[in-house]
Fold this sequence. Notes:
This protein is α+β, with helices and mostly antiparallel strands. It is built from three helices and four strands; from the N terminus they run ααββββα.
Amino acid sequence: MSAKGKEPAGQKDPAPTNPRGIPYAPFVDKVEDYVTSRDDVQSTLRSFQEMISKYQFMELNLQRRVAGLKDKMPDIEKTLETVKFLKTRTDESDPIETTFELNDTLYAKASIPPTEEVYLWLGANVMLAYPIDEAESLLTSKLAAAKQSYANCEEDLEFLREQITTMEVAIARVYNWDVVQKRKEKADEERKGKGAEDGEQPNG
């Protein structure tokens, strides 16, 4: 069993994590800290491989989230720019002639008079009216949150790649240790066999 398994219950320190709670991979400096005999090798390798699978699962989810944020942020920026533009319009301003998107291939014409209120999609087919100042504040905060989330995701992806590499190195070290131990056992058996043969040879 690993050295960690030998520690008395209740004396373990919490596993260190990154700021979003993703645990650090164990760095295997001495294989003997994780395996005490060749009987422990396969279970240790399985445990390490399971950790890699978990890291890869988190990596896949983060990649999907990054892709979603890349699509979302330009839409928020575009909406915020529009709200800021509408905010500059006064009661004396002429209506704006424009087109707006109904779906990917269908647009409609619209005449937009000066306004102090806008409607924002909040998702899940929900749209609410906001005063322009409040809409600007909401969109600004949403854009800042999306940018921070994107930065966190990129940081976590880099962190996960490092942990996966650490675990791959750990697996290689345990595997190589097992190969060395196997060769030592084989050499010991050969020496014992040779010694037995020498002892059986008749004198003279």
